[in-house]
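Subgroup meeting minutes
Present: P.N., E.W., G.H.
Scribe: E.W.

1. P.N. recapped why we're keeping a running log of single-chain structure predictions: easier to compare across weeks, and new members can see raw inputs and outputs side by side.
2. G.H. added today's entry (111 aa).
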Amino acid sequence: LFCPTNEAMDLIKESAWEKLWDEEKARFLRHHAVRGRWGIADLVAAVGTKEVQSLAEQPLTVSVEGSLETMDRVVRIGGATVTKANIRCWNGYVHIVDRPLVPRWRSIGYS
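Output recorded in log:
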């Protein structure tokens, strides 16, 4: 689960949140969760090898800058920076992120 801080959620204007339909709100919330137990080490190992799929059925890109050795590692998921990682809960981990993860709202297909 990727949980934005209160400050991050404040970036979404209340008027914008109210305009979303219930289905869109649910998709937004599902986009912050993934199947399985993804610790921070698993996310780092997935860079370039695995795609992290949200419960909204959309990919979340993982990127890493820096390293643990130099103590400047920054892990990003879907463009949001993980500010606190591996908070244990009964069914996996919670990672705190600095902004909301916004899903694609519509698929655009050309035929």
